[in-house]
Design goal:
9 strands, two-stranded parallel ribbon, alpha+beta, elongated, 3 helices, 7-stranded mixed beta sheet
Length: 138
């Protein structure tokens, strides 16, 4: 079912004009968009996930900034090694690498907040530090 069919059914049921060029159709589309935005903001819907951005990890570099179009990342995937990267809260990173000197294949990511510079991008910390150049999608 397309959005046009859905809106036409709703307008017909309400007894309003179903012309796709009419005012009622335009207003109903606006209300539909408001409803979708409200519903999408209530939880982390799985159907909203998409592989939208990628990042190249540099060997020995523990921190990176995510892309500017990222509102909040939900998943991380190491495409070089075909492994998911598990998100951890910053307080748990020390459980796996207390002195933060371990290197190897990245297993965890911690979103440490928004960059302190004026860009406002998310900052990610990788645990352990990558020992090779890897491609990560998020």
């Amino acid at each position: 079912m397309t959005l046009t069919v859905l809106l036409t059914m709703a307008l017909r049921r309400a007894g309003l004009s179903t012309s796709t060029t009419g005012t009622y159709f335009s207003i109903s589309r606006d209300y539909f968009n408001l409803g979708m935005a409200d519903m999408a903001s209530r939880t982390q819907w799985r159907w909203l996930r998409k592989k939208s951005s990628s990042l190249t990890l540099t060997a020995g570099q523990a921190k990176d900034s995510l892309a500017s179009d990222v509102l909040y990342p939900l998943d991380f995937y190491d495409s070089t090694n075909n492994n998911p990267i598990n998100p951890l809260p910053p307080s748990r990173v020390h459980d796996f690498d207390p002195d933060e000197d371990e290197t190897g294949q990245v297993r965890f990511v911690s979103l440490t907040g928004i960059e302190s510079s004026s860009t406002g991008y998310w900052e990610a910390t990788w645990t352990p530090k990558p020992d090779a150049t890897d491609r990560v999608y998020y």
